[in-house]
Amino acid sequence: MLDTVAFVFPGQGSQAVGMGADLCAQYAAARECFAEADEALGFALSRIVREGPEALLRQTMHTQPAILLVSVATFRALGLQPAVVAGHSLGEYSALVAAGALTFRDALVLVHRRGRYMQEAVPEGEGAMLALIGVELAAIEAAIAADDDAVDIANLNAPGQVVIAGTREATRRVAERVGARQAIELPVSAPFHCRLMRPAEERLRADLAEVAIAAPTIPLYNNVDAARVTTAVAVRDGLARQVSRTVRWSELVQRMIADDGVRTMVEVGPGSVLSGLVRRIDKSVARLSVGDSASLDAARAALGC
């Protein structure tokens, strides 16, 4: 085990057509993940990941299992065990696979359904998620309280970066009201982690009740509580609640550092969004991103493996 090293897994928004292709070319473990995903889901997810088109990959019911697939393929190709794991939103499922709490196959089926339920909860185009940069949390909370429409804080990502979600009109009104330095619309097809997702939460909770979940074998911090999860009951409940509630990423990272002595965080999967957030949360923590064979080799060397 790598003492003081955390593996963190990305969520939706990190997808790109062609992700994972280099790893599949180099590592049998990655190729096996792609084949298993197609078999588990009953359609060629691997083709969507490799070839797109981008519009198809961006559909939530495809995006979520695709990012899980590439993240787990990267983890297995890396072949290392960290001291602690966590994942951002959807990434929590990848972290649970890495921690032995969920099988890869069950996680794929769950996130495919999760994505479909989320998409069906709000018709595409009616909702939005906006990252507000350079605004105090209290000002955002006040603006949300003053709005009569459906809008909530979706992600507390890092100091000075808060994501709101809700109806498209409400999110824009809140962004204008607080005078955000930047208001960046996220490339997602539904407004996650807000009250509009409660129907999806209830549907997913029923599925979670039917899936075998074990206690994590590696300490795991969940999104909804920003707390260490040690039992299957807590895993199941946390996965259901996170659908319509805030991702407390900044607090989660701070707790891993304070409680587990984490000094290095390795982002495992497509993109490097989480590495950027970790830098904003605590600049003293070393950061690595692993998403292809070159970065995998570099990470192994940096970790002394």
What is the quaternary state of this protein?
Answer: single chain
What is the mean predicted local confidence, pLDDT? 95
The helix-strand sequence is EHHHHHEHHEHEEHEHEEHHEHEH
User: Rough shape?
Assistant: globular
**What summary fits the major beta sheet?**
6 strands, mixed
Strands in their spatial order, largest beta sheet: 8-7-2-1-9-10
Tell me the Rg in angstroms. 18 Å
- Tell how many strands the DSSP assignment holds: 10
How many helical elements? 14
Structural class: alpha/beta
% residues in beta strands: 15-25%
N- and C-termini, Cα separation: 11 Å
Portion of residues in helices? 40-55%
Poorly predicted tracts of residues: none
Write the SSE topology.
Elements: E1 2-9, H1 21-26, H2 28-41, H3 45-51, H4 54-57, H5 60-78, E2 82-87, H6 91-98, H7 104-121, E3 127-133, H8 137-145, E4 151-158, E5 161-167, H9 168-178, E6 182-185, H10 198-208, E7 220-221, E8 228-229, H11 232-241, H12 249-260, E9 264-268, H13 273-281, E10 286-290, H14 293-302
Parallel strand pairs: 1-2, 1-9, 2-7, 9-10
Antiparallel strand pairs: 3-5, 3-6, 4-5, 7-8
Structure, explained:
The chain is α/β, with parallel strands linked by helices and 305 residues long. Helices cover 49% and strands 18% of the residues. The chain contains 14 helices and ten strands. The chain has helices at residues 21-26, 28-41, 45-51, 54-57, 60-78, 91-98, 104-121, 137-145, 168-178, 198-208, 232-241, 249-260, 273-281, 293-302, and strands at 2-9, 82-87, 127-133, 151-158, 161-167, 182-185, 220-221, 228-229, 264-268, 286-290. The strands form two sheets. A six-stranded mixed β-sheet has the order 8-7-2-1-9-10. Strands 4-5-3-6 form a four-stranded antiparallel β-sheet. The longest helix is centred in the first third of the chain and has 19 residues, at 60-78. The radius of gyration is 18 Å and the shape is globular. 51% of the residues are buried.
